[in-house]
Amino acid sequence: MLIVVGKAKLGSGALDAGRSALATMIEASRAEEGCVDYSYATDILDPSTMHIIEKWVDEAALVAHFQTPHMAAFQKALGNLDVTISEVLKFQADDGTPLM
Predict the structure, then answer these.
(1) pLDDT band at residue 1 under the 50/70/90 scheme
(2) How far apart are CA 51 and CA 82, in angstroms?
(3) Using N-to-C axis directions, what is the helix angle for 14-30 and 69-79, rounded to 10°?
(4) What is the pTM of this model?
(5) Mean pLDDT to the nearest integer, 62-86
(6) DSSP class of 34
(7) Residue 43 gets which letter from DSSP?
């Protein structure tokens, strides 16, 4: 499994202005074959920071994700918002085990 973890800084009003584009991206990504999980979360201590968490079955699924029409539309929408992606890392992992 691949785990993608990212961080973005949101300018004033960016979350509200981009909420529809974010929701559309999440729903479309979760529907993709090979997507295990796809989500964004704002930081409780710093609401201007958004965390990006994705899980994909393999590299091929992630590569296919980058080629989707909804990714292109999302990239275009981000260009109109005050959002700066500061970090995106990809990790290879096993399927994990429950901690509790």
Answers:
(1) very high
(2) 16
(3) 170
(4) 0.92
(5) 94
(6) T
(7) -
Cβ partners under 8 Å of residue 46, min gap 6? none
CA distance 71 to 69: 5
Continuous segment of H or E residues that includes residue 1: none
Predicted confidence band at 71 (pLDDT cuts at 50, 70, 90)?
A: very high
pLDDT digits (tens, 9 = 90+) for 40-56: 999 999 999 999 999 99
- Report how far residue 80's alpha carbon sits from residue 83's, in angstroms, rounded to the nearest whole number: 9
Query: How many CB atoms are located within 10 Å of the residue 93 CB?
Result: 9
Q: Which has the closest alpha carbon to 5: 33, 29, 41?
A: 41
Can you list the domains of the chain with their CATH numbers?
2-92 (3.30.70.100)
